[in-house]
Amino acid sequence: MRDLLSIFLAVLVFAVGTALADEGHNHDELTEQQLGTVHFPVSCSPAVQKDFERGIALLHSFAFDTAEHAFRHVLEIDPHCAMAHWGIAKSLWRWDTDPARRAQGKMEIKAGERLHPPTSRERGYLSALGKFFAHPKNEKYKRGEAFSRAMEKLIRGNPDDREATAFYAWSLIDTDDDTHANRKKAAALLERLFVAEPNHPGVTHYLIHSYDVPGLAEQGLPAARRYAKIAPAAPHALHMPSHIFARLGLWQEDIDSNLASVAASRNASATHMGDQGHQYHAMEFLMYAYLQSGREDDAEKLIEEVRSLPKMKSMYGVASDPQVLALLSYSASYVLELHRWKEAADLPLTLGTEFGDDAITYLARAIGSARTGDVEQARQSVAKIDSIYKSVVAKKLRFVDWEEQELKEGDAWLDHAEGKNSEALSLLQGIADKQKSGVFAEQGDLPAREMLGDMLLEMNRPEEALAAYEAELKLSPNRFNSLYGAGRASEAAHQSAHATTYYEQLVKTCAGGDSHRPELESAKKFLSGVQPATH
Predict the structure, then answer these.
(1) Would you give the DSSP letter of residue 234?
(2) First-to-last CA distance in the chain?
(3) Does 250 fall in a domain?
């Protein structure tokens, strides 16, 4: 949606104009036109009602740092506002809370409860969020489920409270499983709210999350195409529609969405937003979309752009440097997605990485070495991953499953290079069976089903390879390498009509780029009647 950029620029001009007209104010108000409309009555002073609802709107767009400032501003005006403490605690929620932040959230809930809010509704909000922050050091405590049950109880007692329903719906999404039963339940609740509250940022945001899985994504298009218009000052609101666009392989809309989000993040000071770190999440999606749509020059420029960015906080509220992880993962994605195997084999380590993250580089090296026939170097790279994995197991770190997957993928390519094809296919099939939601590959990895297809093609088993590529395309429509692989497999299986279909889709997908990838040239030659070379 190219109009996303114009929407953002219009908002930016308005915000800057407002700031220049009133330089003496440090807190220019973000309007409903910039953040969306919420109605959340509280028993606090009427003077803070508007500020409180602004904080809620920011929460719904995951602008946590800015939301926390908004709620602290409410407390400055009304120190007896118990729900402001609830808002601060909710602002401390991230995708992956740590014990220290959970302890801080618990303290805020206790502070709110000590103010004795006068309504049972407000006491219910504090109690429900208190369930989430209970037992801060207990990593096994199912805080998401406890919070969801408490929110369900809250809405039973307050059936007309749309904010409670929206937050409850998010809790369902946050605790979803492979059946997607919770996700579908949340979507049903949110669809009804969407009719009643078409400008509500949380409703549209959570609807997108509800449908952010294969098989449901198309139902999320109305919300995706609405959200950015509701809250164009929130970087995450501009980015979030791209979750649906990426699921459906709508790369131009994906790119436009994230370019607007990056611009909003980088101009956050103009709109008094404090969430500049959101741009890294948007750039993950940009990187992926560029590589799927034949825009490798743009992808390379993005990596160089990241190198020049100033230091900033991660949107996830963790201490790790988002720039380091971005350089690490984007560099690996770039060489793997473009099949630049020699560059992958020689990929340098990134300075300043967190423990365990170097496995991304070592896996790229292992795959690159295996695919260029350097078995010994592949073996050395897999040994590096194995050493990291053993340390992760010994330290009982929570990303052990991811580290194990990196090791298995490296082992699979090493096995393949050594001629142990049955072992290689078995390892990849086991990973593929677990990848039920597709892989956006922003962390320097490739989908296991696609790698299965690549191996099977090299083994001269085109029909099985085609099945693997087609299975991946159902999860990840318009993936460049799966489209090309399906075309190649169809050719090898003497299914020219199928090859034509996949190659036509590949060329169409890359129509907006200026790619000179040999795979794309081969597809074009096939379509023009010229026998393509094999890549």
Answers:
(1) -
(2) 34
(3) yes
**Which residues 6+ apart lie within 8 Å of 503 measured at CB?**
483, 484, 487, 523, 524, 526, 527
Q: Which of 282, 304, 326 is the C-terminal boundary of a domain?
A: 304
Question: Is-contact 414 382, C-beta < 8 A?
Answer: yes
* Region label for 285, one of left (φ > 0), alpha (ψ between -120 and 50) or beta (otherwise): alpha
**Domain residue limits at 489:** 467-535
| Closest alpha carbon to 134 in 162, 165, 113, 157 | 113
Res 233: pLDDT: 87
Cα angle at 117 between 111 and 121, to 5 degrees? 115
Chain mean pLDDT for the chain:
90
Q: Please state the φ and ψ torsions of residue 117, each to the nearest 5 degrees.
A: -55, 140
Q: What is the pLDDT of residues 137-147, one digit of tens each?
A: 998 999 999 99
Degrees, nearest 5: CA angle 482-488-494: 135
224 inside domain: no
- What would you report as the CA-atom Rg of the chain, rounded to the nearest whole angstrom? 25
The verdict on residue 498 lying in a domain is: yes
Please state, in angstroms and rounded to a whole number, the distance separating the CA atoms of residues 300 and 287: 9
Token pair recorded at residue 184: 């579908």
Number of domains in the chain: 2
* CB distance 370 to 419 below 8 Å: no
Backbone angles phi, psi at 526, to 5 degrees: -60, -45
How sure is the predictor about 437, in pLDDT bands with cuts at 50, 70 and 90?
confident
- Write the CA distances from 59 to 56, 137, 198, 247, 341, integer angstroms: 5, 25, 17, 25, 43
Give a three-class secondary structure readout of 329-344: HHHHHHHHHCCCHHHH
DSSP state of 320: S
> Which 8-state DSSP code applies to residue 47?
G
Does 65 reside within a domain? no
Domain end (from 269, 286, 304): 304
Report the alpha-carbon distance of residue 133 to residue 19 in Å, rounded. Answer: 38
pTM above 0.85, yes or no: yes
Query: Which is it for the CA torsion 421, 423, 426, 428, positive or negative?
Result: negative
Outline where 372-479 has alpha helix (H).
Answer: 375-395, 400-417, 421-434, 448-458, 462-475
pLDDT tens digits, residue range 283-306?
Answer: 999 999 999 999 999 999 999 999
Instruction: Check: CB of residue 513 under 8 Å from CB of residue 255.
Output: no
Each as own residue / partner, the long-range contacts of residues 48-54 (CB below 8 Å, 24 or more positions apart, any chain) are 48/74, 48/77, 48/78, 48/81, 48/84, 51/77, 52/81, 52/83, 52/84, 52/87, 54/29, 54/30
Q: Is the dihedral of CA 217, 437, 231, 285 positive or negative?
A: negative
Nearest by Cα to 487 from 452, 428, 438, 532: 532
Token pair, residue 274, equals: 């404090």
- Specify the CATH number for the domain of residue 480: 1.25.40
The encoded tokens of residue 444 equal 């320097």
